[in-house]
Design a protein that fits this description.
The complex is a heterodimer of chains A (about 250) and B (about 325). Chain A has about 250 residues and is mainly α. Chain A contains twelve helices and no strands. Classes of the chains: A mainly alpha (about 250), B mainly alpha (about 325). Chains A and B meet through helix 1, helix 2, helix 3, helix 6 and helix 7 of A and helix 3, helix 4, helix 12 and helix 13 of B.
Amino acid sequence: MSARLEYVLRLADTSLVLGQRLGEWIGHAPALEEDLGLANLSLDLIGQARLLLTYAGEIEGRGRNEDDLAMSRDQSDYRNLALAEQPNGDFGHTIVRQVLIDAFQLELYEGLQRSTDARLAEIAHKALKETRYHFRYSAGWLIRLGDGTEESHRRVQGSLDSLWRFTRELFAEDDVDREMASAGVAPQLADLELRWSAHIDEVLKEATLQRPADVPYVWHGKRGQHTEHLGYLLAEMQFLHRAYPGASW
Amino acid sequence: MYTQGLDSPGREALHASSPDTAALEARFQARVDADEKIEPKDWMPEGYRQTLIRQISQHAHSEVVGMLPEGNWITRAPTLRRKAVLIAKVQDEGGHGMYLYSAAETLGISRDQMMAQLLSGAAKYSSIFNYPTPTWADVGAIGWLVDGAAIMNQIPICRCSYGPYARAMVRICREESFHQRQGFEIMMTLARGTPEQRRMAQDALNRWWWPALMMFGPSDAESRHTAQSMRWKIKRFTNDELRQQFVDITVPQARFLGLEIPDPHLRWDEASQHYVFGPIDWAEFQQVLKGNGPCNRERLEARRRAYEQGRWVREAALAHAEKQRQRAAQAA
């Protein structure tokens, strides 16, 4: 697989898997406004995934479209960040996961707007506008929950402590990242990390939350090494496609 | 999406009219007769207000509970395009719930009160959402039949005498007709697909046809509110008129799909230029209305669970807003 294909799949799968997770909330959120808000995020992320998967299919050159890629690959061929596949938990847990990824995607798409890959630059331009809104939404909620009641503070601090171990992967550079950065396709992860960290510190401060210490173990979802949760997510998402092979929907 | 079927008993008080209120009522009825819109600050009979609160809140609840059966399929939609369209649709329903709660609030009831009535089981919502969605074809059938029936009920409400309700309905109808077309398109794809897909489509039609006809509410002879609601121009057509219109429009669509309507008595009547259909099982309708339908418990439990599990979130939002207010006051 070419580095460019790998890279585009990482972007696509992170958006798809996160969009799928958020879709689980719709109809079950704490208030009608949040059903609508989470649906917006989910729709945007699935929209990004569709553009990116279509592009990935073109790079691959085997005639696979967005649905072939979404519905036929098994978990080890998925390239999303392990953070994106973590289960929703309670609303606060979902918000913590969202803030951590939104701040990352914000800087990532900002950098990708200047990509030497015109197609990625174009997708990033659209996705950046959406991601700014996502980050406002998720950071706004994290601040309310962190600086809300004792219970809400305790809950989101617990979620932050539990999910923090997946954040190392966001910046764990490998050959694909290096090749894409040196070709000017992707931004340097080290630069992103500084800016991500600044966003997160700012939000955590306002939310009166403690930033957890980094842990040594690094997940590599973007290389296909996933937590146990992704298999279930895919089993649900891909069920019709697998139960009725060859049917059009 | 909404339905009538909501003609369940309300509590409107029938006040003995004093001479003053008799004059007000006469003036009110004259305005309604002249097709003027009644606005929130206008005088209105208590029965009119209560009827509207009941109907609009039931309509709002139906939108919100209606998110659940289709929401079942968001995570399992067969393509990414279908998934996106379905999310947008369920989101629209939530939005309809919001405008309708706002329209009802203009009549002097709060959204919290309405929510409490839904969760306690005191308020009704459309019975159609107490049927299950075991297959993907159900998403198509709901769009085609349930949204189709809802549109038939709702288009006349765009001309309802109560301004806020009429205006909310204009926007809702526009979105519902889009949903109906999407549902029909899902059915068409299935009907032209593999034998398993055709079977799935026919099975969904078999299960949704009769409940869809029941969405128009009891027959005119049994309907308790029709005459008064028509005088007040809350309602413009009777349940049976709307039901007949739905059958007349939908039967040719089923034929176009190559699907069979599950009614052995169904036939075209040349003399009346209408389809004649078989008897509706009103005992089933009453049972579902009483809470004994296939999914009444699941639907209400899902709403209660979301409400209970979201309590700490809503409390935190209020606590945070209060802290912000205090900080602003201290800074000033």
